[in-house]
Amino acid sequence: MNKHVKGVSEALAGLESGMTIMLGGFGLCGIPENCINKMVELGVNNLTCISNNAGVDDFGLGLLLQKHQIKKMISSYVGENDEFERQMLSGELEVDLIPQGSLAARCYMGGAGVPAFFTPAGYGTEVGEGKEVRYFNGKPHLLESALTADYAIVKAWKGDRFGNLVYKGTARNFNPAMAMAGKITIAEVEELVEPGELDPNFIHTPGIFVQRIFQGDKYEKRIEQRTVRTKSES
Amino acid sequence: MNKHVKGVSEALAGLESGMTIMLGGFGLCGIPENCINKMVELGVNNLTCISNNAGVDDFGLGLLLQKHQIKKMISSYVGENDEFERQMLSGELEVDLIPQGSLAARCYMGGAGVPAFFTPAGYGTEVGEGKEVRYFNGKPHLLESALTADYAIVKAWKGDRFGNLVYKGTARNFNPAMAMAGKITIAEVEELVEPGELDPNFIHTPGIFVQRIFQGDKYEKRIEQRTVRTKSES
Amino acid sequence: MLDKNGIAQRIAQEMKDGWYVNLGIGIPTLVANYIPEDVNVVFQSENGILGMGPFPYDGEEDADLINAGKQTITALPGACIFDSATSFAMIRGQHIQMTVLGAMEVSDNGDIANWKIPGRMVKGMGGAMDLVASADNIIVAMMHTNKKGHSKLLRQCSLPLTGVSCVKRVVTNLAVLDITDLGFKLIERAPGVSVDEIKNSTEGRLIIEGEIPEMKI
Amino acid sequence: MLDKNGIAQRIAQEMKDGWYVNLGIGIPTLVANYIPEDVNVVFQSENGILGMGPFPYDGEEDADLINAGKQTITALPGACIFDSATSFAMIRGQHIQMTVLGAMEVSDNGDIANWKIPGRMVKGMGGAMDLVASADNIIVAMMHTNKKGHSKLLRQCSLPLTGVSCVKRVVTNLAVLDITDLGFKLIERAPGVSVDEIKNSTEGRLIIEGEIPEMKI
Asked: Is C46 designated active site?
């Protein structure tokens, strides 16, 4: 059982223009930096990207947007990216904005083999248009469908060659659910460890969900909103 | 934020005859021994118990069955309990047998606010009788509903007074999903620790799902099938 | 009249000991600064943390520890990290006792609009649609009027909705109002603000019964 | 003719390197003993472990580490523990490449019955209904006939079903058979077993094309 690939090129083998790709991360936190940069270099285009956010203009998915490699974005919030807003308002970019909880659940359900489920989020809004409505306990719910992807690309803190992953802090976010939902799931990690080094009792993503794993060359880990207090503050 | 109660009596306060109770565990592994023993002592009856198994004749839920305190069991497998089979075949006990994965998912969904979802398990069998069928990708699925409980009773390895829990080994099983699905969730733990002692990055059940927590007096942890090999075997 | 901090301060009075609370971006974030000392609440941020603490000290920021506003934060003792699916399981499953959100418009039946201005601004709904559709206890924190001076408390929202019939209470720079079957019910006036001023700034149906007390801040 | 270990040994030949495999209770459990050295497979037990190892040494049993048969087990390096909901997410989401189950009856269109004898035995389906409804690759391991000598490979199951049209292959003490649109297709004979013996023990439609090779065990 060896899912370790040599680097980002081997990890992305087979990823082609026109595919549907899930990318983990929340804002710039926990995004697969190495894979995104390589996708820019590869020049694949017409991509459908499923990711909670779309990066910023010069980092993360923003880099793919700048080069018009993305045909459609499926996200919940894109407020930090001017180029995104411009492409969307001009109609260059197809956008499917969906509630963040529905996005997370749709990925999880995709990985868990649940093709559809009911959720209250979005009822009575444009998100609910055309969707089946059913009442449970007197409350309206929408039928939402599961999401899967040709490739799911996630970023973890540590991982082993069985594909077992652990994340650090809130860099976990969408990564575990998306890892479940990829036909091929690629994990890039800060540190590749030997099987057995990760405590089996405390693994966030079981290796079964991961097909390829590699240690990223470097991580910039850019901070979007650096908010601090000074030592004098309570 | 202090969910710590003094002991099992305080933990079970308000639990009454006729209620629906979820109990974690798989076989005798990870069952809330202290709470079950106390429920026998309290003599509450007419209970609907949701638990993957029903214990053995003289341990776990079997003790409640012996005293006819259970009106209805919702389980996936009850093969280890003769008294259970006798009560079921004689009609003394109502039994709803449901696929193990559907049981786990129905508890999870109950806790997650998803009132219904589609799953392939049980289609074409008596489990599917009367249930809505819908095809996704050409494959038939049943619409299953979420489960919740008046009380969910789980057993963890360690926990703090915020209700954060970690489990050990396969004693985890149904406990995390059931912890989510209780109107009141009671956690009994082997060791109560101070908030901050559990690494926030590696908590299995976030405290928000737990309303009461206490350290159990003792744990028998009976083994159902002691299977071993001798040192000479490979 | 209150400023943004005043609105936050008034909302902080709504918190009850032992509650789990989700604070949206903007004015709601400020609420954390005014929780009474004897009230213990745990803040959830929907990107995956319970027990969010204050901003880190300068130099101690961790790129892997942020809140839903993408700000660097800290974790308090007893905090807990989880993934997005679990986070919204908490929200959708109604395990959060209070949600505070900003809004562009609120209607007198409790509809809220806060994510989109057609043709102009489309940031996305983020977690707001899940929060408003799920929570039992939703408080909106906003200014009573927009920059043009038009009321944000309307008979009907003009912008695309985030949720329907979900807001329970609105706290503005002018007043505290509850959503009832008959419209906005005036509960409290901001310090120095008259009932007439509130009437003039409220486009939706307004119910005024008896003497309206001034907020205690 | 094979004994139970022989059936397990034959099924072990089906395993491919890198597969995740779920083994049911009974004969399927024995399969783990016969995996070729150059084939690495990871065993899942649906109560919540990937990377299940052999039984523990005497005295090293851990009540908190069991398999779905409630037997004490060990965890191999690289193993991983998870909860029941996650476990069946793996199963339902088709992340397991092979499932081996016992059965009381299999019909020639791939229906399986293995959980209930009305009025007599009701152990429950456990995880079997999820497994058979989800897995693409389901192999049944069982004796060809029951204790009364009646065929367990039928035109139609008489017992309550566990799943419909799901079994891909059956390995018995007499033969290997694939489920096809036209019935059981005989693939291999057990050592020393004639085609006629298999015919006589099979009630369901049986397809015999050309020379039927003997198993290599």
From this structure: yes
User: Alpha-carbon dihedral of residues D115, D117, D122, D127, nearest 10 degrees?
Assistant: 10
| CA atoms of A227 and B63, how far apart (whole Å) | 56
**Subunit contact B112:C75, Cβ cutoff 8 A:** no
| Shortest Cα–Cα distance, A24 to chain C (Å) | 10
- pLDDT for position A233: 59
DSSP single-letter state for residue B125: S
Q: Which two tokens stand for residue C119?
A: 């043709």
**Both structure tokens of B54:** 């029903």
Sign of torsion, CA C174 C178 C183 C186?
negative
CA dist., res. B153 & res. B22, Å (int): 6
Q: Which of C10, C2, C14, C8 is nearest to C190 (CA)?
A: C2
Q: Do B196 and C40 touch (CB under 8 A)?
A: no
Contact C63 A29 (CB under 8 A): yes
Label the pairing between strands C121-122 and C116-117: antiparallel
Two tokens at A51? 């990711």
Per-residue confidence band for C23, with pLDDT thresholds at 50, 70 and 90: very high
Task: Write the residue in C42, C75, C93 that is nearest to B1 by C-beta.
Answer: C42
pLDDT tens for each residue of D51-95: 999 999 999 999 999 999 999 999 999 999 999 999 999 999 999
pTM to 2 decimal places: 0.97
Question: Do B106 and B147 form a contact (C-beta atoms < 8 A)?
Answer: yes
User: Tokens 């040192």 identify what position?
Assistant: B231
Contact between D65 and D42 under an 8 Å Cβ cutoff? The reply is no
CA distance D102 to D175: 15
Residue in B160, B162, B208 nearest the CB of C90: B208
**Runs of H (alpha helix) within C56-173:** 84-92, 128-134
| Residues A44, A193 contacting (CB under 8 angstroms) | no
- Chains touching C by CB (3 or more pairs below 8 Å): A, B
Structure tokens, D129: 């209904």
Helix (H, G, I), strand (E, B) or coil at A140: strand
Alpha-carbon distance of A39 to A186, in angstroms, equals 13
Q: pLDDT digit string (tens) for C118-135?
A: 888 788 999 999 999 998
First to last CA, chain B: 51
For residues B186 and B209, what is the distance between their CA atoms, to the nearest angstrom?
A: 9
Q: What is the dihedral of CA D3, D5, D11, D15, to 10 degrees?
A: -170
Q: Which domains does chain C have, with CATH numbers?
A: 4-207 (3.40.1080.10)
- Please name the amino acid found at residue A112: A
- Provide the mean pLDDT of chain D: 96
- Which among A60, A174, A57, A48 is positioned nearest to A110, based on CA atoms? A174
Across the interface, which of D18, D44, D89 has its CB nearest the CB of A1? D18
Q: CA dihedral in degrees (A116, A117, A122, A124; nearest 10)?
A: 100
